[in-house]
Write a structure and sequence with these properties.
CATH architecture of the largest domain: 3-Layer(aba) Sandwich
Structural class: alpha/beta
Distance between the termini: 16 Å
CATH topology of the largest domain: Rossmann fold
Number of helices: 9
Bound molecules: 2-phosphoglycolic acid, magnesium ion
Radius of gyration: 18 Å
Length: 226
């Protein structure tokens, strides 16, 4: 039987990474003689990838847009060295991944975080062994909300039924465009009211994800046999 595929977003879904992203942004701004931005402000800038994070910081401060490449490189170098100082999986993530693995799911990650820090974080938090595929923000030509990452992972992992688990409006749009049901984690970094999102179900603790995923799989149309 085709194995079902469960694809997870990373920041604000599997891991609470905003504290380290905020700290690295604060060091970048201090290095440029600027005041750090508030934690909630930086958290609201996460989800569209690091280049967009830097654009949003430039727009909110006196940083020079012409020096974006330099800020981006400085951020990535610093964040790469400190990405798991304050970052942990959300409660229940490891138990949920263990259960899904026992159930026979193929597990994967589709994040807008660049691939190098993504792989380093998964390794440092001992999560890497769970995932048969990882797509970062710079892995393919287009990142979320482009559906290419979900489509690529589905093809790589055997074309089984897919559920995408994420926290944000970016993830909801990605799932919609890929034609995949979306399970919304309500404790992440979403910037818009949930009523503005398309999602098949939501959960607030990872202990509640497994029944939701089985419900969504049971609701999926059975593919026609040729
Ligand atoms: O914006 C980012 O860098 C990553 O965000 P994501 O893991 O939620 O896709
Ligand atoms: Mg996210």
């Amino acid at each position: 039987m085709t194995r079902p595929i469960l694809i997870f977003d990373l920041d604000g879904t599997l891991i609470d990474s905003a504290p380290d992203i905020h700290a690295a942004c604060a060091r970048l701004l201090e290095g440029e003689g600027e005041q750090p931005l508030a934690f909630e402000v930086i958290r609201s800038f996460i989800g569209n990838g690091v280049p967009v994070l830097i654009d949003r910081i430039i727009a909110a401060t006196a940083l020079d847009p012409a020096r974006k490449d330099r800020y981006l490189a400085a951020f990535l170098e610093d964040y790469g060295a400190h990405a798991t100082d304050l970052t942990f999986p959300y409660p229940g993530v490891i138990e949920a991944l263990d259960a899904f693995r026992k159930d026979g799911f193929s597990l994967a990650v589709c994040t807008n975080k660049p691939e190098a820090p993504t792989l380093a974080i998964l390794s440092a938090l001992q999560l890497e062994g769970y995932f048969e595929g990882v797509v970062g923000g710079d892995t393919l030509a287009d990142r979320k909300p482009d559906p290419a990452g979900l489509i690529h992972l589905r093809q790589r992992l055997g074309h089984g039924p897919v559920v995408f688990v994420g926290d944000s409006e970016v993830d909801a749009e990605t799932a919609l465009r890929a034609g995949v049901p979306f399970a919304l984690f309500s404790q992440g970094y979403c910037k818009v009211p949930f009523s503005d999102l398309t999602f098949a179900g939501q959960f607030q603790h990872f202990a509640d994800l497994r029944p939701l995923v089985f419900k969504l799989l049971a609701e999926m149309p059975v593919p026609a046999r040729g």
